[in-house]
């Protein structure tokens, strides 16, 4: 792809952020997506009551209506960011997200609420694409995996506290207050990003807009075995996560374990295992390598999912809370040991087209995850069996895809290939 002569964004931040500030800021931008879902989970009951929704499974549309546009629009933001830069593209996405937040806050019907959620997802798709592209602009290989893991460690704090904060907001007002608060948080994070983050797209990687160039970049991404293989693996794993998020409120709060107000506590405890996995990955990835850790993760995930399903069947779909939550938390740990490394491996060969590549991979993986999450989530029948079966099926399929990608070999053979990825370029001069 030929670079254009366009100049990068000329806005000069006060100073370049330090490494800790960079990681924190990127993590907060990423966390807006998690906040927009997890903070809303305690409000499912009040929303159902307000709009007279007869089937509780229909409330999962609040997640799906957000996730499908979130997936589709990622295909737009990446190529745009390769042309005009990461910073202005992210600000456009946040503006769309704020519009959707206002529509959702003021919604007077369930249909209008779903429209607001769709607009939110369409806007926040920019954060999914551009945070990965910005990290890839600055880092490569195992260092990128380390940064992704540290970022995820900060990012995971959101699902730990989001349901509890949502419950607190419900004590102070209605579910409309939750959406209004999220809008306020997005304004603060967007302002911080605008003031402090420089343009990271290197001038020689800046592109002129061309459908043929975009198509060429997508073709390169889709035809790179490592990239498309691990991207498919991410999508299958995201299907597990989306099915869990979609049915967590019904499983823990209402229909299986009847925890009521204690639901955010269990949800947060499980999320801490994901944070612990991100810390473990950041600590070990430079020594052991992305492939070794992720291959251990996906093998362990599939085995634990089999145990998870066995326990679910043994107790007719309603196993003891501590037993099931404990096994499930172990699998969430393995999930977080796997997906960040898959993402880094998929992006490693694609530094010169990072924006479009991140866009395609993000759109593909999110859409795949959202659709599988919807299928499994809508299968909820008052027990944990559909969720457990979904975890095992998708985990086994992901392991099969990884074996195909690595031509039947795991871990040791793949580890030696990690140093061959492109090197990250320095941050673009202002």
TrEMBL record:
Pfam families: MFS_1. The chain crosses the membrane at residues 21-41, 61-80, 92-112, 118-135, 147-171, 177-195, 228-247, 259-284, 296-315, 321-339, 351-372, 384-404. Signal peptide: none annotated. Its main location: membrane. It is found in: Membrane. Residues 22-407 form the Major facilitator superfamily (MFS) profile domain. InterPro entries: MFS (IPR011701), MFS_dom (IPR020846), MFS_trans_sf (IPR036259). It comes from Microvirga aerilata. PANTHER family: MAJOR FACILITATOR SUPERFAMILY MULTIDRUG TRANSPORTER MFSC. It is a multi-pass membrane protein. Keywords: Membrane, Transmembrane, Transmembrane helix, Transport. One of its GO terms (cellular component) is membrane. The keyword Transport applies. One of its GO terms (molecular function) is transmembrane transporter activity. This is Multidrug effflux MFS transporter.
């Amino acid at each position: 792809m030929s670079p254009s002569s366009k100049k990068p964004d000329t806005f000069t931040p006060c100073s370049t952020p330090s490494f800790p500030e960079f990681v924190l800021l990127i993590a907060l931008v990423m966390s807006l997506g998690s906040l927009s879902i997890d903070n809303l989970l305690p409000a499912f009951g009040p929303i159902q009551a307000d709009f007279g929704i007869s089937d509780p499974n229909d409330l999962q549309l609040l997640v799906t209506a957000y996730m499908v546009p979130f997936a589709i629009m990622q295909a737009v933001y990446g190529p745009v960011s390769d042309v005009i830069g990461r910073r202005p593209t992210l600000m456009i996405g946040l503006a769309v997200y704020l519009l959707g937040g206002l529509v959702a806050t003021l919604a007077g019907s369930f249909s209008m609420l779903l429209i607001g959620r769709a607009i939110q997802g369409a806007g926040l798709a920019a954060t999914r694409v551009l945070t990965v592209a910005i990290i890839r602009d600055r880092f490569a290989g195992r260092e990128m995996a380390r940064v992704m893991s540290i970022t995820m460690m900060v990012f995971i704090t959101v699902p730990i506290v989001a349901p509890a904060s949502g419950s607190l907001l419900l004590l102070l007002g209605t579910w409309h207050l939750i959406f209004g608060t999220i809008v306020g948080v997005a304004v603060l994070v967007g302002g911080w990003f605008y003031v402090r983050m420089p343009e990271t797209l290197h001038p020689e990687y800046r592109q002129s807009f061309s459908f043929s160039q975009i198509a060429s970049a997508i073709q390169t991404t889709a035809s790179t075995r490592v990239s498309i293989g691990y991207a498919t693996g991410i999508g299958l794993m995201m299907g597990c996560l989306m099915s869990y998020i979609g049915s967590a409120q019904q499983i823990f709060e209402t229909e299986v374990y009847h925890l009521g107000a204690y639901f955010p506590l269990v949800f947060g405890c499980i999320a801490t295992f994901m944070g612990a996995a991100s810390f473990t990955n950041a600590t070990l990835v430079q020594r052991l390598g992305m492939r070794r850790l992720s291959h251990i993760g996906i093998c362990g995930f599939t085995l634990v999912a089999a145990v998870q399903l066995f326990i679910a069947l043994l107790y007719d779909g309603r196993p003891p809370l501590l037993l099931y939550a404990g096994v499930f938390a172990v699998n969430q740990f393995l999930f977080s040991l796997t997906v960040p490394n898959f993402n880094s491996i998929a992006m490693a060969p694609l530094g010169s087209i990072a924006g479009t590549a991140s866009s395609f991979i993000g759109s593909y993986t999110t859409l795949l995850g959202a659709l599988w999450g919807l299928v499994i989530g809508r299968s909820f029948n008052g027990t944990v069996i559909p969720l457990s079966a979904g975890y095992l099926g998708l985990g086994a399929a992901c392991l099969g895809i990884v074996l195909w990608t690595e031509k039947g070999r795991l871990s040791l053979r793949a580890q030696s290939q990690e140093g061959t990825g492109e090197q990250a370029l320095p941050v673009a001069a202002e």
